[in-house]
């Protein structure tokens, strides 16, 4: 087949490229003529939902993004926060949902690769990977295969590049049966005076391509990520990219080596929409043009067309603007690391992206209008109808509390995730001081006393029931998890996974979650510094539960203050912080024990969250606390059991549950609560301090022995708890 | 003790090894790029963990043919000490400096967790700071650590006290349950006939400070200081 750049642009061809009539009219206006095929492809990917945020940006703009410690908020490759001593933490979370459903190993692996590049392209050394994963029902025919492939893909990539995968979250729900979520987060460390941005500058400066060669993989990946799944989704396998973590590792080292010199003017990774989006962002960001000779692009396959080169999503590639005359010096670095290095063009003052191929100009697009005039939609939305609160009395008590607790901790959503995180090298770099399984992962800032705490959270069943409260709760839960290890929460990244925004009820979920997130971020002084939106997570017209996954980052100035969820010594006193009203609406108890997902989620009182959390953190920082655990999914008894299992010590707890039925007190998911384990001689002082500050606290028992004894329930040995907790996933995945 | 760490493309525990050696010996190790053809005078050469050349071929096979490895072999043949951790152990078996091979884990999965190791022979340059039979906890993180050697080689290793570490349970028993990867005889680490080369899959360099969860890895480095200084 001969390739014809000047093929007639028919309505059908425009439609095939996912451009609406209005969008195509705008394209014609920007160009002042009919586009070439290459240009049509470029407009198509740049204005895809995935790259342009056309449905979401109106609402994203309302999120708080500023704080004195925010150096760069949304708009750069990743968010940057100040952690003192001229150091910065750079982080972002991003989705790779559609590719992971089609090809779980490569989809998840390249998700990790992509987020790593977003972080190191800014000059940071990646120091931790996290993730947030949602799978369909365990009974669904594909779930086991997808879980196995995704976990292996995340591990396969992260382990090879040598960045520890320190934690994450994994949930199962039938709404993800046909559309799993794979959200990967990376956190990097940089010096503040060595942060690199993407805006190109310097007329005549050389533009360099480095990394892997360009192949035909992933062409139109961004467009795929912007459409619903249908029965023929499997046919889209060729649009999934293939990862090469070895090359990524070399690319990290080579780029960091290059960035340690003064040669780099601007740098940008080639992510979604590959060379197109990277070059348009760099050129439009700097108000300059690029003139590329596509014949210079390192190519993996023969006979690639400009269209294919511009739309390829081949992985492990970067675009760099160098200072003039430094090409040979830079090339030597990439030669050492055995990576391709090609001067593909230069910066011009035209403001256009000019592409030459075999001596002919195949595209010539003004970048500013392409980037700035991308469509923005105010899509119609309807508010999610409010649900009635479910009274504790309306939920039956279990026949046997002990069996209920065992069923809960052995359920897919609450069981041990050892099987998952043992496949991740969570210790490489030797700075992981809190491993997966606690409230937040903690990695040291290498060579300092500082450490960074990270947590990813979202409770989609809350978001589905009440998007505003669910949005708040997702933000709050990360804040609480960071607090529970003793860190000061600083900022978040978000990965907003929703269904088809063209449906008003889905758009209503999106608007509601953003509203809730906004309120929480403001009250907690916890801004959004980066993020990603993934829409059209639907299969055959059914949307996923709204899932605004939040990745929170907190700081320790002295990492020795950190605590875990494991009580340290027999005789420690257990203190319950916060009020328990027995809120069972859309709780895991209701789901697991009764198969119901009814009622309103627990309300989030942001001021109360702040008061209780600040109290807990101050006590941890004063070194009064031996262990701390936040209470979330599954409620109080599950949290207590998790502490017992982590310490392999029993506990004796006596609760005063007054007017609340015992099962509601035990498994209700009321917010703003923590359990502290404190040395016996410090308990009274903590309780009186709490009283003075108006924080509800109660002494509920002691750590010790081999049994888990809570009043009104038959005693359970810690070993039985552990066996039950560790059983489900291993059995499910078919291990001995 | 003067040391050198060889860095291959996609070595990724090189920094951890460098940090541990500097912290414990008080001297910064020489860092040797795999293409370097000279290694400065060193008492110890360390081959770190990682995924040299992506492990796209047999683990360690490409690295074993690097120019720097020729110098490592010469150093070993002169009686110099060599350690290979994880990917480094795989490289040592690929060069033939240590017998046997590291196959894919029995579960076919990458496994990262703390394991109990029994010090099987504390009369070596790498284990003398531990007690004979002491059980220590060291993290492992690998996909291909399933140690295999033929019966004759195994017998020789066992008879000559060349098993340095074995995977055991908390009580020190080398049970099947305590074997994380299917290694024959629960072998986690071995030494060569001349007793100047050690290879092991677990990572002692990851457990040298309380903050990392323990200090059981310190004895490994202290042993070498005892033997070499």
Characterization of this structure:
The complex is a heterodimer of chains A (736) and B (229). Chain A has 736 residues and is α+β, with helices and mostly antiparallel strands. Chain A is built from 25 helices and 28 strands. In chain A, the strands form 5 sheets. Chain A has a 7-stranded mixed beta sheet with strand order 8-10-7-11-9-12-13. In chain A, β27 and β28 form a beta hairpin. The N and C termini of chain A lie far apart (54 Å). By secondary structure, chain B is of the alpha/beta class. Chain B has one domain: Rossmann fold (3-Layer(aba) Sandwich). The longest helix of chain B is centred in the first third of the chain and has 12 residues. The radius of gyration of chain B is 16 Å and the shape is globular. In chain B, 57% of the residues are buried. The mean pLDDT of chain B is 97. Classes of the chains: A alpha+beta (736), B alpha/beta (229). At the A-B interface, α8 and α10 of A face α1 and β6 of B.
Helix/strand/pairing category of chain B: alpha/beta
Q: Determine the mean pLDDT of chain B.
A: 97
Mean of residue pLDDT values of chain A? 95
Structural class of chain A: alpha+beta
CA-atom Rg of chain A in angstroms: 26 Å
Number of helices of chain A: 25
Largest sheet of chain B: 9 strands, mixed
Strand order across the largest sheet of chain B: 2-1-3-4-11-10-9-6-7
Question: What would CATH call the architecture of chain B?
Answer: 3-Layer(aba) Sandwich
Query: What is the beta-strand fraction of chain A?
Result: 15-25%
- The poorly predicted ranges of chain A are none
Unreliable spans of chain B: none
- Helical amount of chain B: 10-25%
